Automatic annotation (TrEMBL):
It catalyses: CMP + ATP = CDP + ADP; dCMP + ATP = dCDP + ADP. This is Cytidylate kinase. Residues 6-218 form the Cytidylate kinase domain. It comes from Paenibacillus rhizosphaerae. It is an enzyme of class 2 (transferase).
Length: 221
């Protein structure tokens, strides 16, 4: 069986990570969540008290960080310098800052190089914002997943079992804000690759999306 690389991009809350993980499982591929890497950098910088307004300092520290992604039973673990930071990187605080740190050119260059290394031997499902355009422009399959803002907010809301006391309206605002920041930034903004398949999942359930992508991949094997 010839292995390929699969790039899945799209805006916040489109369900990329759930879908990417299931596609990877169906094909016995490795899943790489690049958002978790930007989140890990963000968490670490906030811990160190270094704001995104100090890009040189952020870059210097990023280059020294050891970021590991470990595939686990219920998703992927993220280690920073050996410490499991998975429980911290999806907090509201990190949500609020991650798009600012991800705009720093050197941080992107560093993380993109790491991501390209991970994909060298193929058999990777990678999700993010710039995978099909910048990280893996040669990926055999590129998917651009979207859904309406309302639907994406609703999915996040259900996923959170109101743990953080957020209303649906607040979630919609958060998603719109991140969409805007990610799409408007100068360096590799969120953009659909010319050769990507656009999947609007607003009215699709999870198995339908997974099957669509897996079927598509099979035409390549
Ligand atoms: O996918 P997730 O929502 O975890 O990503 C968090 C943030 O990380 C995004 O809002 C974006 O600012 C940044 N990101 C990025 N490039 C990627 C993946 C994520 O800039 N490839």
């Amino acid at each position: 069986n010839l292995k390929i690389n699969i790039a899945i991009d799209g805006p916040a809350g489109a369900g990329k990570s759930t879908i990417a993980r299931l596609v990877a499982r169906a094909l016995s591929y490795i899943y790489v969540d690049t958002g978790a890497m930007y989140r890990a950098v963000t968490w670490f910088m906030m811990e160190q008290g270094i704001g995104p307004e100090f890009p040189e300092k952020v870059l210097q520290l990023t280059q020294k960080m050891v970021i590991e992604l470990i595939p686990g039973e219920d998703g992927q673990k993220v280690l920073v310098n050996g410490e499991d930071v998975t429980p911290y990187i999806r907090s509201l605080q990190v949500n609020g800052m991650v798009s600012q740190y991800s705009q720093i050119e050197g941080v992107r260059r560093h993380l993109v190089a790491l991501q390209q290394q991970m994909a060298l031997h193929k058999g990777i499902v990678m999700d993010g914002r710039d995978i099909g355009t910048t990280v893996l422009p040669d990926a055999e399959v590129k998917i651009f997943m979207t859904a309406s803002v309302k639907e994406r907010a609703l999915r996040r809301y259900k996923e959170m079992n109101d743990a953080e006391g957020l209303t649906l309206e607040q979630l919609e605002k958060d998603i719109e804000r991140r969409d805007r920041l990610d799409a408007e930034r100068e360096i590799s903004p969120l953009r659909c690759a010319d050769d990507a398949i656009v999947l609007d999942t607003t009215h699709m359930d999870i198995p339908q999306v997974v099957d669509t992508i897996v079927d598509y991949c099979k035409t390549y094997r």
